[in-house]
Amino acid sequence: MGVSGIRTAGGHPHGQRRPLRLARRRLSAWWVRLGIRPERAEPGRPDQNGRHERMRRTLKEAVVVPPAATLTEQQRFNRFVTEYNTERSHEALDRRTPAECYVPSPRAYPTQPPELDYAATTTVRKVRQNGEVRWKGRWVFLSEVRVGEPVGFVPRDDDEDVWEVFYGFHPLGLFHERTLELSPPSHWHGKGENL
């Protein structure tokens, strides 16, 4: 099975601005376990996720602005979903509706996402309750987002003090052993080579 991707903005609920950048509510971690690569638009670049931004604008115009006088009247979302998906044609879809283009995925939806699989050459550490892992006798903070989860460390060929940190196949960052610091992966946004 090949890895497909979901492109989102980098903020809540899909990511975070912390070192390991997977969502606190485990949405993107769940995607990784299902074989889906989280892709992030660069900060301040809504054009990199134009279809989503256009849908949000349409949703805001239809449901949020201006607000209705009562809470009951404000519940306009169901009507919006019906109109957006089955009645309103979309220029990007050659004037068809999303319902006319939708094809269900042939992939089965598991009740439990599969366990992560790491190569035998990967150093695997389980993240403790406080977000730390044990590294050569020292505690290193990674992220409270991955609590209880295994993360993999792979040494970089070009620098023996730098390790690539992965959650499954997904790069989380670079671990600098000398300083015990993390930095984001070089290809975090879009379809980088190491995503």
What would you note in describing this structure?
The protein has helices at 27-33, 50-64, 71-74, 77-87, 98-101; strands at 4-8, 36-40, 123-126, 132-135, 138-141, 150-156, 159-167, 170-176, 181-183. The model is unreliable at 188-195 (pLDDT under 50). The chain starts with a strand and ends in a 12-residue tail after the last strand. It is of the alpha+beta class and 195 residues long. A 5-stranded antiparallel beta sheet has the order 3-6-7-8-9, with no helix packed on it. The chain has a two-stranded parallel ribbon with strand order 1-2. Helices cover 21% and strands 25% of the residues. Strand 4 and strand 5 form a beta hairpin.
Computed over alpha carbons, the radius of gyration is 20 Å
The level of helicity is 10-25%
Oligomer: single chain
Got a strand count? 9
Task: Give, in order, the helices and strands.
Answer: EHEHHHHEEEEEEE
Overall geometry comes to: elongated
Number of helices: 5
Which stretches of 5+ consecutive residues score pLDDT under 50? Answer: 188-195
Query: What composes the largest sheet?
Result: 5 strands, antiparallel
Q: Order the strands across the largest sheet as they lie in space.
A: 3-6-7-8-9
Mean pLDDT score: 80
What is the CA-CA span between the terminal residues? 16 Å
Classification by helices and strands: alpha+beta
Strand content: 15-25%
